[in-house]
Amino acid sequence: MKKLYFLSLCLLLLFAFPSSAVSAAEGSFATENPVTVRVGIYENAPKIFTDEDGNASGFWAEITEYIAQQEGWDIEWVHGSWEECLNMLANGEIDIMPDVAYTEARALLYDFSEVSVLTSWSRIYSGNGVDIGSILDLEGKTIAVLRGSVNVEGPEGIKALVAAFHINCSFVELNSYIEVFELVSDGGADAGVVSKDFGNNHQEAYDVRQTPVIFQPSQIYFAFTMDNPLNAYLIETIDTDIGELKDDKNSVYYRALEKWFGGAVEKNVIPDWIWWVAGGLLLSILLLGGGSFILRSQVNARTRELTEEVIKRKQAEEDLRQSYGKLEVLVKERTSELKEKSDALEEANAHLQEVNRHKSVFLANMSHELRTPLNSIIGYTRLMYDGLEGDINEEQKQDLLAVYNNGKNLLELINGLLDLSKIEAGKMVMAYEVFPVSNLVKEIIATIEPLAKEKELTLTHYVDPVIDNIYADRAKIRQVLLNILGNSVKFTLQGSVKLDITADEDNYIFSVSDTGIGIEKENLEVIFDSFVQVGPAQIAGYAGTGLGLAVCRQFIEMQGGRIWAESELGKGSKFIFTLPVNKKIILNR
Ligand code: ADP
Questions:
Q1: Substitution candidate for ligand 1 out of 410, 487, 567 with most atoms within 8 A of CB
Q2: Minimum-distance ligand 1 atom for the alpha carbon of 532
Q3: What are phi and psi of 37, to 5 degrees?
Q4: pTM score > 0.90 for this model?
Q5: Do the beta carbons of residue 244 and residue 27 sit within 8 Å?
Q6: Would you state the pLDDT for residue 178?
Q7: CA of 536 to the centre of ligand 1 (A)
């Protein structure tokens, strides 16, 4: 899992900093000047030692040989004890000594590489039955140590340490850590001081025990003999190579650490929390990346939708605009068509009115011209019928009566046509006058009475005494009254005909009632149109023109009144008309 995180992190770093990865890969250990390097070797397994075949072995030997192989060096291993090796280094008999802790005192004797190879510290191991819980327990004890070691003579070595605590103990100085553990194991010493790497690897074999007393933590380097002209090259090369090996987790350096120290040796291991943080970071980056990808996709999708929507709306607007345009054109066309038609109609109408006016004028003239000869025909026929022109037989009398009646009828028709033509031609004018209504009634009754008597009908009349003089066109009112009274007599077979004239505040009310044949409800209005006859009146036997009531309505309405009929078929009819009361004429109330 850790490796997966690390791999991902490396990948990220690779993408972020590709140039640094490339330049690292291009590094080279090669040198153009192959050299023989003398390297000291002492017995401190597993760090460095001579194996059973007499070959250099251990962590330092492996690293040193790897670098030599990379750089093309020949290594000459020079064996000795620790102290002998350090002396050979000081005397220039060897070029390099591995596994040397840096101290200021040693820096006066040797050169050191800058990059440390290992971190180490020293520890006290006790013999069987010896109990050491702290540095104070060293009081009075015999302690085996490595001669010349920094953990013995160094500023933080065991001698300086016990002196600082005022502890009295004795030291036995030996040539190797193996001798130290052998002495402790044999009981020749109570305790021994070795590096923790050696101790961890050999404590079981020598039956010695770790104590909690740890001291002198130190960085371990390659040390070089002084004044060697190769030093600058050797130190720089070794520093570069060690640096690169430490940077590469899969390098020989880490494989050697694992091989020689296992889990017991501290490595430059990246702490767990770094893995977790890196993993967390990677996860966050992935989540953020994923989130931003999803968001971007959503935004893109929404943008696409909105764009499509906008395009659709624009298209719809364009369609609508075009429709409006077409509609406008259509409306304009229709309007101008209608205007043309309306103009044409107006023109036709004006033309028709003109024609109608000509017709009315023609009819009026014609009617007038016809009436004069017709009147004389009717007059002479009557003279002959009455026997004033001499005796006539019965047959002749009947013929003359027919001529007389038809003549009268024709005259009535001509009179009606004349009146309507005049009205249509706009030539009919009202001749208003003030006249006593009773006088008019008397005259009309006198005219109608013979006709009523002939049919044995009762003719009565009533004039409200409040009415005296009225202001109207007397001749027209007379014509109207004669027409509707004549109709009543004509369409009543038996019973009565009655004329009533009353008044209210505003109107005179004239009504003629009869007990005649009556009129169907749906015909009450049409009988006021020209040439309309309804019911039995259409059948022969009732002479008439169908013009009378049309003329009556015109005459009454021209004087500001109204005329209408009320009737029940078979029971009789009532014709009513009103005339406005002229305010100057005081009713007799
Ligand atoms: P005319 O009497 O010459 O036919 P009018 O215009 O005076 O023409 O009357 C129109 C029609 O109205 C008549 O033909 C008749 O059918 C009907 N009419 C008028 N007055 C009466 C009435 N008093 N009773 C029944 N029908 C009537």
A1: 487
A2: 10
A3: -115, 130
A4: no
A5: yes
A6: 92
A7: 10
